[in-house]
């Protein structure tokens, strides 16, 4: 288009010149020293135009020859980029279609020439991960960082995510700690760190991470509450009989948001911890308050282990519950345990046997075995222990037949 315009302009100029010369065909005299040349004006103008275009063509040719190496390099680079783009597209299509090996080969075939080296290397790393080749995965991620140093955070996040998927939790933890040094407030990094702490069971670190998770909205409020519940339950379950687990159960309980203290799972864990360290009075109060708002069979079973200052008063309360809620294996087991504390051996035996008849768990057999041994009935005690062990192992046992008439429940207070 450009050359056509120049040609049209030249023709226009020639027409103008021809018209002028046709009207007035003058002459021109050129002299230099003793040399002189005389010619018509038209001839002079043709010579000028010829010289001009000759110089233009020579200049253009010289420039093109001078810039030929650069233009050749650019053309080859464009060809390599096109080839790399096609290979990357093919690799991404293979990845989407689940052909991991082909995807990795296509992505890495021209990765050094890719216009998007970060995307190419990360996709290749994911393809290698899905083949279980974590060494190649790490090599591709290192290459990604070397190609795009500014994408350090993106590479570390990808590496940690892939390490977690490959269950390399210790390596993922090291990667995420490095990320914390670069960007301690990165929401996705905090989320991955929470996953690692949960996987390795580092509940104290997980609880310490809850506040940053909330501040940066790395997870939903419901997910953070679930993490806090799980971490606190795990820490409460670790508390031994001396109350040593980094902090006592009361401190952990007070550190919980008020809305979580009504969660049955947390109430049970707190009560178990209190019972282990000998705080039966506090455990009884906690369970009693929780049972008023949430009737829970496991909490009922624990109530029989949370011995307060007056076991007989507790027993009367449980017997009231029997009247209100009806008989259940857990409630009868609790009543039997409290009868043992109150030294009401006959009632205790009746409650234990009734709990077993209603499908009681292995602990009901164990409690009955202890009681029968105390009552000097070793054969029956041995049978109760054996049946309880069988149930705990998932085996079936014969239906239990009480040796004495069944006592349904004692009178109310």
List keywords for this structure.
413 residues, mainly alpha, Serine Threonine Protein Phosphatase 5, Tetratricopeptide repeat, 19 helices
CATH hierarchy, class of the domain at 318-413: Mainly Alpha
Output the helix-strand order: HEEHHHHHHHHHHHHHHHHHH
Strand order of the largest sheet: 1-2
Q: From the alpha carbons, calculate the radius of gyration and give it in angstroms.
A: 44 Å
At the fourth level of CATH, the homologous superfamily of the domain at 318-413 is Tetratricopeptide repeat domain
Describe, in plain words, how this protein is organized in 3D.
- With 413 residues, the chain is mainly alpha-helical.
- Among the domains are: 229-309; 318-413, Alpha Horseshoe (Serine Threonine Protein Phosphatase 5, Tetratricopeptide repeat), CATH 1.25.40.
- The protein is 72% helix and 3% strand.
- Strands 1-2 form a two-stranded antiparallel sheet.
- The longest helix is centred in the N-terminal third of the chain and has 56 residues, at 41-96.
């Amino acid at each position: 288009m450009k050359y056509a315009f120049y040609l049209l302009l030249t023709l226009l100029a020639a027409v103008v010149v021809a018209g002028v010369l046709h009207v007035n065909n003058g002459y021109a005299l050129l002299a230099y020293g003793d040399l002189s040349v005389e010619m018509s004006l038209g001839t002079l103008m043709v010579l000028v135009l010829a010289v001009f275009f000759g110089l233009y063509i020579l200049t253009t040719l010289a420039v093109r020859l001078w810039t030929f190496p650069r233009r050749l390099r650019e053309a080859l680079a464009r060809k390599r980029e096109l080839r790399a783009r096609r290979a990357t597209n093919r690799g991404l299509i293979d990845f989407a279609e689940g052909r991991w090996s082909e995807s990795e080969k296509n992505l890495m075939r021209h990765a050094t020439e890719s216009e998007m080296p970060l995307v190419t290397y990360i996709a290749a790393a994911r393809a290698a991960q899905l083949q279980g080749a974590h060494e190649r995965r790490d090599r591709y991620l290192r290459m990604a960082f070397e190609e795009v140093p500014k994408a350090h955070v993106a590479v570390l996040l990808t590496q940690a995510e892939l390490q977690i998927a490959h269950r390399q939790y210790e390596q993922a933890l090291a990667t995420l700690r490095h990320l914390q040094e670069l960007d301690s407030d990165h929401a996705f990094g905090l989320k991955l760190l929470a996953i690692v702490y949960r996987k390795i069971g580092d509940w104290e670190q997980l609880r310490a991470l809850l506040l940053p998770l909330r501040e940066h909205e790395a997870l939903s409020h419901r997910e953070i509450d679930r993490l806090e519940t799980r971490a606190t339950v795990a820490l409460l379950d670790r508390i031994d009989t001396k109350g040593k687990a980094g902090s006592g159960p009361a401190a952990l309980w007070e550190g919980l948001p008020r809305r979580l203290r009504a969660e049955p799972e947390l109430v049970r864990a707190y009560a178990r911890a209190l019972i282990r360290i000998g705080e039966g009075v506090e455990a009884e109060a906690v369970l009693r308050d929780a049972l008023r708002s949430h009737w829970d069979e496991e909490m009922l079973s624990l109530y029989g282990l949370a011995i307060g200052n007056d076991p007989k008063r507790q027993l009367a309360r449980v017997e009231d519950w029997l009247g209100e809620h009806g008989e259940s294996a857990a409630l009868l087991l609790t009543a039997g345990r409290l009868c043992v504390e109150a030294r009401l051996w006959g009632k205790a035996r009746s409650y234990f046997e009734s709990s077993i008849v209603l499908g009681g768990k292995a602990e009901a057999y164990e409690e009955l075995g202890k009681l029968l041994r105390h009552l000097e009935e070793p054969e029956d005690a041995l049978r109760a222990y054996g049946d309880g062990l069988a149930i705990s192992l998932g085996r079936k046992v014969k239906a239990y037949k009480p040796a004495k008439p069944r006592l349904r429940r004692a009178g109310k207070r």
